[in-house]
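hiii so my PI (J.) wants the whole complex modelled not just the main chain, which honestly fair. so below is everything: two entries, each one labled with what it is. i double checked the lines twice but i was tired so who knows lol
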Amino acid sequence: MNGDRTLERIAQGDGLALCAVGPWTARFAPVLERMVADAEKLRGTRPDIFIDVSQVSKLDTFGAWLIERLRRSLSHGGGEAIIAGLSENYSSLVDEVRRVRETPDIETSPVSITAMLDQIGRTVVGIGGTIIGLVDMLGAVLVASGHVLVRPRSFRMTSTIHHLEQVCWRAVPIVVLITFLIGCIIAQQGIFHFRRFGADIFVVDMLGVLVLREIGVLLVAIMVAGRSGSAYTAELGSMKMREEIDALRTMGFDPIEVLVLPRMLALVLALPILAFLGAMAALYGGGLVAWLYGGVDPEAFLLRLRDAISIDHFIVGMVKAPVMAAVIGIVACVEGLAVQGSAESLGQHTTSSVVKGIFFVIVMDGVFAIFFASIGM
Amino acid sequence: MMVQPISDAIIRVRDITVQFGRTRVLDGLDLDVKRGEILGFVGPSGAGKSVLTRTIIGLVPKVSGHIEVFGIDLDAASSGERRRVERRWGVLFQQGALFSSLTVRQNIQFPVREYLKVSQRLLDEIMVAKLVMVGLKPEVADRYPSELSGGMIKRVALARALALDPELVFLDEPTSGLDPIGAGEFDELVRTLQRTLGLTVFMVTHDLDSLYTACDRIAVLGNGKIIAAGSIADMQASQHPWLRQYFHGKRARAVIG
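here's the output for the full assembly
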């Protein structure tokens, strides 16, 4: 730019003139800050100090503030520093920065053992809050279902079908592909290890029971929690951020009835369908591997499968599916409606929707295992 | 002290065409913005005012035409040159576009911290100076954008746009959503800042008060072109039907009083 920026010191009898020269702008702020810090050390050395700014070619907020900062720190030492030679254009800018008082400090939270313990305590209390939140949402959804049963016209068919397409129809390819591969892997591992005992054919028992009772539904539920649970949270969360949910409420609609119920219903219908398709794909994959890798031909496979599994195994799997869907849906919707104003909060709640969803699905699976064992299924 | 004469154009837009699918939004548009002026940019809703702003700052691709800002052709500029240009302008978006996960303090300091190696002390002081300039108390510094009112968001966004002391600011409907007193203060603020900082302001607005009190010159967009540009008196004298309705309608008469 035009010339160097400096802060020259010129002695004037008893006093001292600090002469600012050149462009004092944001671009040169780092250099200017150092020069001002040097000049601040002159505080108290002379009775009067002038700051002459007549040779400043360009001034912006940064330059004006640095000059003001210099004036203040020189004034502290008893004598009064005066800014001289201020041109008309810049006097209003200097007046503007003169209005700045003390700068507030950042509120920093202390990092200590107490703070860590505090955090742990809050998290534990938060778990209670989470469970209450889930029960609350379950209640709200049941109440909304009651309303819809009384007034079937208020049921949102279009919305439900739309969500059914999103979470069921569009999920079919990926769910079928993954369960098919898992079926292949289970069969291969089974054959590999059972062969040592000459028990190849029992791979069919293992595959049948595992897939129909546990893996089929559990794996699909985890995939749905990751795929659709996160989508629900993000959708509801961004609607919350843009006050769309408040808008619904002010128009006299219940957000649970309009937004949550169709999503829940879609998920509860979708998960059994997906779990069934997934189980079939896994059995198909397992059968294929048993035939090509283990030499169990399809006819023998089917015969063995008919002996090995009963309808009970299939029912156990299918009973679990809608319950897991409800858990995933409730967790996702609670998290979505808990989103605050920031993008960060949306991310946190989406993450915790998936994590909590998967956690509760596995807990539910354990509860079901105990239950079915006690009733002898 | 202006280095360049007051008359030269800081933004020079020539023959700009912008199309979305098959709809042509801007059709061979020419516009000059002079250094040191406040240009008010008006037109019917959906005429493409925001599109032109976004095209100039490079957020919307254009089909054809030239844009020069600070005398630099933005199409021919290298990425380094472009970045230097971007550092010299500030943008106030319609909704504020504050970073929602950062506090007011961090929002304002963000561009400064990225571009200048200055001490935390200076960063804080400049942040407070900017807050004071836009008429806010330093106490709001540690609030998050979701804890601010609409008017405060606009002011903080302006403070962020001004953080690096730009020579040019784009304001997209700065007074929309503010109460008349707040809007009046905002106009006054823009005027003051333009005077003190020597800013050039490109302001998209619907607010007749802003046009009367803040703007030096007005450009009107219609059918993808500038249909008129000039002082407020020129606009009032114009015979164009939309302009007649705009400046002589019921609301306009209320403003002129």
